[in-house]
Amino acid sequence: MQQTQNDRSLGELFAELTRETSTLVRQEVALAKTEVTQKASAVGKDVGYIAAGGAVVYAGFLALVAALILILVGLGLPAWAAALLVGVVVTAIGAFLVQRGIGALRRTNLAPQQTIDTLKEDAEWAKQQTH
Asked: Which domain holds residue 67?
């Protein structure tokens, strides 16, 4: 004969609550892992922008060094001015990429927000179960 929900003992009810809470915690941990993995992937892309920006800034530095060489060589139209212009432009592009990556990282919320929200819902559910 199967017991109805109202016929169960307090011990049985607490045992069921413990099992359900344990299952819920395992599910929340799995959700948190998934959410953190997704956010880490997005952060990796932003770090890529920073690295690309750093490489372009370095190329700009090399162009500025070439400008100094061209000043000494003194070819035609002031070659140093052309090389200097290229160096400044390349450096500006690199700085833009670095700033873009840093800005994107600042906007990234690394907290597992979905997990936090469901934990609040779970706490409310557990609170209702004990009343």
From this structure: 35-129
